[in-house]
Each structure stands twice: as structure tokens, then as C-alpha cells.
Amino acid sequence: MARIARFQALRYNPRQISFISRVVAPPYDIIPPEQARTLAARDEHNVIRLILGKEGDSPRQGQDYENAAAALQAWRKSGVLIQDETPSLYLCEEVFSIAGAEITRRGLFCDLLLEDLSGGNVLPHEQTTPGPKADRLKLLEACKVNLSPVLCVFSDEDGGLYEFLQGLEPGEPLYEFASDEHIVYKMWRIADEPALKRLGALLDGESLLIADGHHRYDTALAYRDRHRNNAREPGAAPEDYALIYGISSRDPGLKILPTHRLVKGGDTFSQEGLLSRLAESFDVTEVPVNTSRSLVEFVENWSPEDRLIGYYPPGGTLYLLDLENHRAPESSLADVPGCMRDLAVSVLLHGILKPLFDIPPDSPVSSGRVRYEADSEEVYWAVESGQSDVSFLLPPVSAHTVSEVAQSGHTMPPKTTYFYPKALSGLVFNPLDDDARLPRPLSHSE
To answer: Considering the chain, what is the average pLDDT of its residues?
Structure first.
């Protein structure tokens, strides 16, 4: 079973930081350079100065990691960051809108006792790559603090955890604010024993799915293995733990959005030729798209039950490729695990990008011709401006499918899922540099 622990969070001091909205940021890996500059300019204590610490797409250099560590220490020394004296869990509520519907989600910031991914209690669903892990490990070595949480999903098969979190009324929140994405956040510290005892019982026997932050989890494992004393019991040192933000699988606010693909065709590319080839393998329906907004509104209504891929080239027409009567050779999906053959992303990678574009399905981005984009409005403008030749838009994947693939021991292709909202960086941090403030696992008997 996954072991959850309360911890003494390092967090922004509301007496020095009046507007928490000025210092939080999305996860580092989804922040484009322009947004990074905006966040850095917004407040000299914005967490972007720790988690990214650079401008542009160039890799970090050695001094960048040291600069982040120096800033972190300065903020702690000056009281910009404070550490709670009582080991606690932290309840966070997010209120947001998708396709005009208001949605509420609640989750817990807590510590997780790290375990290898082969153990079956913590399940990954996406592949990782060496570059981001090396970068995160250098940052963790310099700062010795988990700066960003791993977004996880608690199995919560009977829904007891979801019901309990919905019923919690902790009083005045530590923070309350709205983000740039118009998401309203509230966060409370949970330190009272009755609530912690109930959570200990509810989380007993839980398994976890890593929803977002696979590189962060792998980095935490690498840091643990590098620093821990194997003579000590697991859980006896701060590096045995990682910061997570956990959400119940039963929470209707657990939303998964798709990530679309922008593609460059190559020297011999022909729009007419590609459409003709696609018509050989799919039944194709044309949908007029006159503006970026019309594309967004159409795609926003897709659900995991929709068996289609959207092909959008320049010119104002979206072509819907029907996956129900897919006529591509079965051999194109021969290497795909059975639990993933019906996924739109599998058909795209193996039945379209590989045979029609000669783009390898195992590493499409390495070809230099594929770019990921979650925002369908950005997809529209990237195609219409000529930055990309064409795009392929995908429907979302259900949480059940993600869990099914993970439990089967397989991982989905990178950027198949976009759990929304992402877990913010800057609400709480998890220090790893003080043995005297060890996280306290919730007792299974509580």
C-alpha cells in the first residue's frame, strides 16, 4: 500500500506576501518563455525563480542551479518563507470552468513514502526521458527541497475519501486567490487529530496513479538512492519522501484534457496527397471552421467516448477521421499492447505519423517535426500562420483507461493526457534538509 505522511511544509509567509497569486506558477514544463518573463517580473519572490530560473529554451547551466538555491535560502532567512511547526496535511480546493460548466475539485498536499515503480502501489502511466530528469536532479541537489508536487490520483474505490474531503469545513483558509487562468484556489492546513485519524483510515491500503510529474517522481527516487543510508529503515530520513498533490479517483473534478499534435510535413509534403491517403484508411467527415473560436468550441465538446481524430490543415476545414471503421493494416498496430490499440493516440502514432510522415512512433518529437499543444486555439493559429503544416486533434482519454493501462504494466506515449488543472508550484514546499523534522506517516490504525 502507498504510505502517506503529514509534514511541516515550507510556505510563503502571508505577512510578507500579501497576494499569493503573485508568487505561484504552473509546473515548470508547461511555462513558455513569454509567460516565464511575465511571472519573473510580477514579483521578485515568484517561484518561477526557483523552478525555472532562466529565460528562453536554452538548458540550465551550473550557476543557474546555485542561483536558485541561494534565492531559496535568502527567502527562508528573511522570513519570506516560513515552516509550519506542526506536521500537517494541506487541503486545496480549485474551482474552474470547462466548456462553460463550473467544476470544483479538492485534493491533499501530503508526503508520500517513495517506493520503486515496480512495487505496484505507485503506478506510472507515461514514459520519461533522461534530459528533464537530469535537470530536476541537479536542481534538487542544489536546493534540497521538493519545489513542485507530483500530481497523483488515489484509488478510493468506495469513494470514502472523496466524500470526507467534500465534507471538510476547516475554517479560514491560509490562502484564497484566483490564478491567471481564472481558477479560484483555497488552501487550508489540516492539523487536528480527528481529521488526521479519519484520513489515516481512509488512505490505508490505497494505491496511487501518477497523473502528472513522472519526471519529478523519478528524480525523487534518484535523490533518495543517492543520499539515503541503507542501514536505516525506509521512512527514517527526509529523502525517503516526496511531495504529492493527491485527488480521489471519484472526484468529478478530475478532468483529463487531450494534448494535440502539430506536424511539419517535410520537403515532399502535399496537403492534397495526405488527404487522399487518409481517405483510404478512414471515413472522413468535413466540418467548416471559420475562426479559432469555432474550432475550440467544437473540440471542447469531445468526450472519451468519441472515436475520432481531427485533421486540421490550413484553410478553414476540420476533417474528422472515424476510428470505428479504421482500414489501416492491422500490422501497423501489431507492436501496440492490446489495452492501447483502440486509443486515438495509438492510431495517430502508428497508423498515420509513421506510414504517412515517416515519423517514429516511439520518439516523434526527436524528429523535429512534431510539437505538442494542449490549447486548440493555439493549434489553429500555428497552422494558419504556417508554423506547422497540419495538426491532429485528439479526444480526451478517460481516467478509467489511464488506470487500466497503468495496472496492466504499460505506459502511454508522452503527452497523451493533460490532467487539468495542473498542480500549482508555490503553495507548499517539502524540505529535505532537516532530519529533526521528519514527516510523520498517518497511522493505518487511526
So the answer is: 92
